[in-house]
Amino acid sequence: MASGPSVFLLNVSGQIESAEFPEFDDLYCKYSFVYGHDWAPTSGVEEGISQITSKSQGGKQALVWNFPIEITFKSTNPFGWPQIVISVYGPDAFGNDVVRGYGAVHLPFTPGRHARTIPMFVPESSSRLQRFTSWFMGRRPEFTDPKVVAQGEGREVTRVRSQGCVTVSFNVVTKDLKKLGYNTGSGDFPNATTMSQP
Amino acid sequence: MNSHTHELHYSPTCAVMAEVHIIGQIIGASGFPQHSLFCKWGVHTGGAWKLLSGVVEGQTQVDHPQNDDMAFWSHPIDMHFATKGLQGWPKLHLQVWHQDTFGRNELYGYSFLHIPSTPGTHSLLSPTWRPLGTWQEQICQMFVGGGPQLKSSSLIYGGSDRYRLQTVAMGQVHLQLTVILRNFERYGVECS
């Protein structure tokens, strides 16, 4: 029996390029991946933590990390396609690190170079009393596990405030996805309508 | 060269069925009068469709955005269907709700869209509408808030009973969805 491939590979390299947070400075970010049961990383780094960056002096006020990502996954089934989860932290007025944003996006599906702008958000206190205590104690609400932002269930109880965004670029190579019968189309946006950025 | 092109490995659970993966995000919404918004969503398919994995309905987080021109939900979607036919291609229906500072929810818009049949990544904008009600109800809504809602969500994605409604345009929902197809070529079905 001629045995064809039984798994496909998804190789992603890229970088967390930069962020826009008009209100905050001296930020660093962490990244990790969330993927389904059929998926497994075969090589590369599954999580990382960047340097602390300050805003540029010029008018653009960019926060540049230029932080590398390299990972390869294998799977038999696109269900549970990996998502990159990014969380951004920075010092508050007392010098304690607090979260400034969580965000997630699926890794691109087609071979080639892709750029993604990920909107970031932080959870909010659900009651006025909690809001007061968090203001008084100088601790703002955080997710105990940032990976919840890649999950769809149980989000109806979450209140968030969106602020800022992170720009990530990816280079994607796939292997044997077509041989296993999957058609992911080609090109990034075959019939794209322009997405308005905040 | 390709002696095994016709002997591809198919998963045993659905050896002969065509498969559709729908993966992506409900990104957020813009163009609404207020932007403290959340969204209830669901996917409706015909009888020939079988859900193999994933969830087909849910509710997003409530966003109170810092800058008030767009609400972000970044709500992930991941579904795997098997189908015997093209009839009843999946439709996504959306309900956008506004949450005020007291935690009260009011309906801001309904919308539906067909999942694109072309494989690939699609950036989509789905315009929404809400029922208008009678003029008495409209005046009441100006003072009290709230407003008429549909009794059955089938009106959102069905066309047969819409002629009874008077509606008004609301904002739009931004989505990015990737469609992955499998085994459609086997049956001569051309999707791209």
Automatic annotation (TrEMBL), chain B:
Query: Which Gene Ontology cellular component terms are annotated?
Result: MKS complex
Q: In which family does this protein belong, per the annotation?
A: Belongs to the B9D family.
**Organism of origin:** Xenopus tropicalis
Name this polypeptide is given: B9 domain-containing protein 2
Q: Which InterPro entries does the record cross-reference, listed alphabetically?
A: C2_B9-type_dom
Q: What is its main location?
A: cytoplasm
| Function as written in the Swiss-Prot or TrEMBL entry | Component of the tectonic-like complex, a complex localized at the transition zone of primary cilia and acting as a barrier that prevents diffusion of transmembrane proteins between the cilia and plasma membranes.
The record's subcellular locations are: Cytoplasm, Cytoskeleton, Cilium basal body
Q: Which GO terms describe its biological process?
A: cilium assembly
**Signal peptide start and end residues:** none
> What is any Pfam family matched here?
B9-C2
What keywords tag this UniProt record? Cell projection, Cilium biogenesis/degradation, Cytoplasm, Cytoskeleton
